[in-house]
Amino acid sequence: MAKFVVTPASQAQREAWVGGAIPEVERVRPGLWSIPVPIPINPLRYVLVYALELPDGVAIVDAGWNTDEAYDALVAGLGVAGYAITDVKGVLVTHIHPDHYGLAGRIRETSGAWIALHPADAGLVRERYDDEAIDSLVERERALLARCGVPPLTLDELAGASMMIRHMVSMARPDRLVEDGEELGLPGWDLRAVWTPGHSPGHLCFFSPSRRLLLSGDHVLAKITPIVAVHPQSGPNPLADYLDSLAAVRKLDADEVLPAHEYRFLELAERVDYVMAHHDARLAEIEQVVGSLDGVTCWDAATRLTWSRPWETIPPFMRRSANNETLAHLVWLEAKGRVRREPGEPDLWRLP
């Protein structure tokens, strides 16, 4: 597949990404700031928090991980823009992954800001982050991985792989639920919510028609594609949801995309087309693997696919993601009648 390279909206931000550095705080437009907040032990390195100026303070889109380093970076970044953490009036969370949601509770404790989520993600908060509920989620993940054919000796390691980042989230129930198409009501902003499930069931983007800006969260990024996976908290066919969501944002009249990682860029429609083509190619590769074997588990299929590095060098947490991403593609193919599943322990996949 021919590679498509987007045009960066900020050359300095792109150079920082390519050079492995943290970019500077930037004034994107009048009243809008980009604040990089570091992510520990993660190749993404930072999340881009966007601060929207209001008459009495700021609202921010996403928050970062709950670490002192991230909190201090957010405070310092707001300071560059001329604000204190106590000036934050609201936190619009694109989705409940730790690098977006983790600091929201701490910010609310300090400033009294409201926290907003889509209802689909709000309904997952307790099971995902409450100490009394998370054991059930781990067990459900373990059962899913067993049906995928994950070897018994690695089941426990993979099922609990995300527990290492559990402490980087301050669990906070949202004060506000934001529905698809809802006008956010922020003074001076015509920001509208766009529900884009796939990466998470309640992922939200935010679109400003007058400024022709799309704050895309993890839904559309400049270089990488977000993880779209089947897991205990996903929808039944998350890849179908994601592709439909891509088609929805492609129609938006946006001159610039402000993602949560990497760097700002132009050419929304072209980037969406490229990501869709990427998934078409992936689906074809998985279908070919299924056809080359007389019954294959999801895990075995994942080990035979092309990844950004050799399978043996992928750490456990990312192997789990790779497996669950493969499962999402298999489920999509199953829904289209291009593969069939033989239920069991583990499930086997074959051509029709």
Please provide a written account of the structure.
- This protein has 352 residues and is of the alpha/beta class.
- 36% of the residues lie in helices and 17% in strands.
- It is built from 12 helices and 13 strands.
- It has helices at residues 11-18, 68-80, 98-101, 104-111, 119-122, 125-129, 134-147, 152-159, 238-250, 268-291, 298-303, 316-335, and strands at residues 26-29, 32-38, 46-54, 57-61, 88-92, 114-117, 176-177, 192-195, 204-208, 213-217, 256-259, 340-342, 348-350.
- It has a 7-stranded mixed β-sheet with strand order 1-2-3-4-5-6-7. The chain has a 4-stranded mixed β-sheet with strand order 8-9-10-11, with no helix packed on it.
- Helix 2 (68-80) links the parallel strand 4 and strand 5.
- Helix 7 runs antiparallel to helix 8 (152-159), helix 9 packs antiparallel against helix 10 (268-291) and helix 10 (268-291) packs across helix 12.
- The longest helix has 24 residues, at 268-291.
- The chain is globular, with a radius of gyration of 20 Å.
- 45% of the residues are buried.
- The mean pLDDT is 94.
